[in-house]
Amino acid sequence: MSRPSTYLQSALRTSLRATQAHIPKQQWSAQLQCRTFSLLQCRHHEAQIRQQKQAIRQRIRNFELLRRKFSYTAARQHGHLDPPKPGEELHVTFIDKDGEEHTFVVAEGDNLLDIAQANDLEMEGACGGSCACSTCHVIVQDEGMFDKLSEPDDDENDMLDLAFGLTETSRLGCQVKMSKDIDGLVVKLPSMTRNMQASDFGGQNPKHH
Ligand code: FES
Fold first, then answer.
1. How many Å lie between the centroid of ligand 1 and the Cα of residue 131?
2. Probe ligand 1: pick from 69, 70, 135, max atoms within 8 Å of CB?
3. Ligand 1 centroid to residue 159 C-alpha, Å
4. In three state form, how does the secondary structure of 140-167 look?
5. pLDDT in the model for residue 69
6. Which domain holds residue 170?
7. What residues of the chain score a pLDDT lower than 50?
8. How many Cα atoms within 13 Å fall on the side-chain side of residue 140?
9. Residue 128 CA to ligand 1 centre (angstroms)
10. Which of 133, 166, 187, 200 has most ligand 1 atoms within 8 Å of its beta carbon, as the pocket-test mutant?
11. pLDDT for 52-84, tens place per residue?
12. Whose CA is nearest to atom 3 of ligand 1?
């Protein structure tokens, strides 16, 4: 009597031969090709679904980053600044796009974006002062004063690279805080800035204004 494994192999061979005997060779090979093709199609679809899932996850991550950025923006309060304590007044002058000068009395620690917005000057501050746009670009008028400012960090330098009309004394207004060292600072608002609210965050073409 044969051993079980040998018996099984022989039974399989017999069944295969019987199946092959009932299906003509050409048909057998066509069926095989058809199944192989279906298998390949399934794998291809699987890969496509995997890619789509990855793309959706990436979009969710991007959306979440954007949502955090905007909630941070909303949380910031612009348009109101506490007045300086008596004897601690500092002065800053903005030259607007028409060349008109506006001088304000401000407190130590106020940043140029907040000062401009509190006084209705045209400074967009699209990212709310989180150093993620360049719409608060200002040009420091005096080189000596520019040297007294704290060094811009990498984030600010990256954003400044995107600013229109970049100069040797350009800074981002939201990153410049008033201090005694720069009392009397004079900055100019550039004639053009990049609108990042609709374009860069929404994926449309940038607008200039
Ligand atoms: S407000 Fe966006 S970088 Fe200053």
1. 5
2. 135
3. 8
4. ECCHHHHHHCCCCCHHHHHHHCCCCCCC
5. 54
6. 90-208
7. 1-2, 60, 68, 71-72, 74-77, 198-209
8. 23
9. 6
10. 133
11. 766 655 564 555 556 545 544 544 445 579 999
12. 131
Q: 39 C-alpha to center of ligand 1: Å?
A: 54
CA 194 – CA 159 distance, rounded (Å): 11
Token representation of residue 88: 């601690």
Tokens 């600013």 belong to residue: 163
68 and 135 part of one domain: no
Helices marked H in the chain: 4-22, 25-75, 112-118, 143-148, 154-160
* 175 vs 112: CA distance, rounded Å: 8
Do 73 and 110 sit in the same domain of this protein?
no
Quick: pLDDT tens for 6-20.
666 676 677 667 666
Q: State the distance from the centre of ligand 1 to the C-alpha of 57, rounded, in angstroms.
A: 28
The pair of structure tokens assigned to 39 is 């298998």
In a domain, 25, yes or no: yes
Spatial CB neighbours of 201, under 8 Å, sequence gap ≥ 6: 66, 69, 126
CATH number of the domain enclosing 156: 3.10.20.30
Mutation to probe ligand 1, out of 69, 134, 196 (largest number of atoms < 8 A from CB): 134
